[in-house]
Design brief:
Layout: H1 2-13, E1 40-45, H2 50-57, E2 66-71, H3 78-88, E3 92-95, E4 106-109, E5 115-121, E6 124-130
């Protein structure tokens, strides 16, 4: 087996892989115009999608549209997930609150065991958080 393992290591060492440089944490203050968000980015992920979400959000500039995130995650983890992303990203990332206005340069993570919906209020979008029944066994649900 040792020769087989050694050959696999030699083969892997010759693989042409693109290097991914880790992005530095933002050094600028998180501030920007508090306008309404005309466009939205909506992200849904199942269990295990946390790193994919980080990979998408981390390089986004403050000029990004408002972002809504629904991640299949139990209560107690969504707030710390949002806080971790907030430290790593230029945009503001937080756990969504009922009645909150969606702003550009902000990402709102659905609270665990709650559904997050969007309502139009004049020129603004407003977040609605509720305890509706699970959808396909999930709350929050990406579906």
């Amino acid at each position: 087996y040792s020769e087989m393992i050694a050959e696999k290591i030699r083969t892997a060492s010759r693989a042409k892989l693109a290097a991914h440089k880790p992005l530095a944490a933002p050094t600028t203050l998180k501030s920007g115009p508090l306008l309404s968000s005309e466009k939205l980015l909506v992200i849904g992920a199942s269990t295990g999608g946390t790193e994919a979400i980080r990979h998408v959000l981390q390089p986004l500039p403050l000029s990004s549209p408002g972002i809504l995130i629904t991640q299949h995650m139990p209560p107690g983890f969504t707030r710390s997930f949002a806080e971790r992303l907030n430290k790593l990203c230029q945009i503001t990332v937080k756990e969504a609150e009922d009645g909150e206005r969606v702003l550009p340069g902000h990402a709102y993570n659905a609270p665990g065991d709650k559904h997050m919906e969007l309502a139009r209020s004049g020129a603004n979008y407003q977040i609605k958080i509720h305890d509706g029944p699970p959808v396909n066994r999930h709350r929050p649900s990406v579906d």
